[in-house]
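Section handout 9: paired folding examples.
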Amino acid sequence: MHHLFGISPALMFLLFCVCGIIFYAVGLVFLRIFARQASKDILTLPIAAFVGTIATAWALALGFVAADIWTVNGRADQAASEERSSITRLIGMARPEALNDPVLLKALTVYRVTVISEEWHKGYNTQPARAVEEALQNIRVSMISLARGDIPGALMSQMVRDFDEMQDARNARLALGSSSVNHYKWYLVFFLTVLTLVVIASVHADRPKAGRKALAIYIVTATMSMWILAIHTSPYRGVGRIDPTVLFTSQKNAMSLPEAFHKKG
């Protein structure tokens, strides 16, 4: 399921359309079966009100999946904001008008650029990148060098705290990128989708034409709902993804993106 939700929204839309056609075909099969049964004894089939029982369960399962997706996206947005804030504070301390440490400034800028290129763009924040780990080590070494100087203890403590918060935010970002909605919840949604169309077919057994229309309306609703949720499952890909530029702020003395890549090489 995780790989499925990683494909492009257009391809995923086609995939869900195929699923919708299959669902409709299954519904027609059950409609024909129930129609034959209704011609013999209509009283053996459930009444129309029974649809509400299964449809409500389907709607609740879909709502649980949606709630999990919006929660993950909200946490991912918060993690990106916290990482950006920590980087910004550390860069502000390393700038010429503050500590004037070009080594630390370069290490922080390279870290930010490497996160975007290696973890965000290439891996969609699903796993840590070695280049980012090396960038973190360079920041760590630069801060140790500062600590050996005459920098005030309170300022050094604040820098260490900001550095720890940056690492915690990165860990949260990677954890959210590698996790998604529990697959069993999606299986439940698909199962209840099929079960609901079976029930719709059963209550329309004596009216096949109305049954076909009801199945078509339900399947279009279910397919579009699941597709919209699926393209938002990962906070770092799809139409609702968080753009990596959130890690950049207006820093006059910080290196630009091309400059950071050039100096890193």
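Moving on to protein 2 of 2.
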Amino acid sequence: MLGPVMNLFGFGKRSFGSLTEQEILGLAISQEEDDARIYGMYSDALRDKYPASAKVFDEMAAEEGEHRRMLIEMHRSRFGEHIPLVRRENVRGFIDRRPVWLVQHLDLDIIRREAMVMEAGARRFYLQAAKKTSDAGIRKLLGDLAEAERSHISLAHRLGLTHLPADARAEEDETARRMFVLQYVQPGLIGLMDGSVSTLAPLFATAFATHNTWDTFLVGLAASIGAGISMGLAEGLSDDGELSGRGSPWIRGLASGGMTMIGGLGHALPYLISNFWTATAVAVLLVIVELWAISWIRYKYMDTPFWRAALQIVLGGALVFLTGILIGSA
């Protein structure tokens, strides 16, 4: 029961700074193994319709295999045959990857963006890892691998797709956009979803149990502030930004906590209206607006088809909303 909660706050995971040089090599080896498998699955998914793009991913998988071989040889020369089992999920700071490689009929543009994010993350990892090592040979190898991953970031050009960065400045703009999504949009969206949905049940349960608008407002206010503090702490403590490149945990925590409070207060404020049914009608209208806004943000920034996002968010919100009404009317 405590495992998921501990992982949410980063407990039970090692900090990157606490890893030994041997463990850093073990982590790098496991990352290269995972990346090679993912590129292989991308290649298999694209082979029938996009054979040229599939070939690029075959080459990238082979390159990751070569990186793995180099890392294993370095480990063997420095520490012997036994490689410690350290994976990204055991270390704080890594971004959880969406398992898009398991989705059938993947969109080529989504695969490209996911691959670019993977490689940018791998380069950032090697740069940070090189700073943590004092062994000259290991440091050189990690630096060389960082440069190799940097060359991979031109994957967009190698795939020959349309609407891709045409020059270095455009690539920098694309990178800046991804970082904006990771640092502000993603934590803010999670907070907005939590605040807009999780506070529905206590708010409307209180409303229909008491028919007292002031009491309902106080419950909504308390739920929104409490949820905002909780989400802000969870986001800030989950990742220091060193490996993920997601920036300051304070900024992400404020974005997540602030949007959580906004999401909850949006449908609590109407209960400052003294007439119960008028306040409830306005609150319900605002809930509908909030849920559709969340669906649009997921569509705009998170590569989720709009109607799928709308179905997931609106259906979930409707269930929580009805739960509150049923409990309050019991």
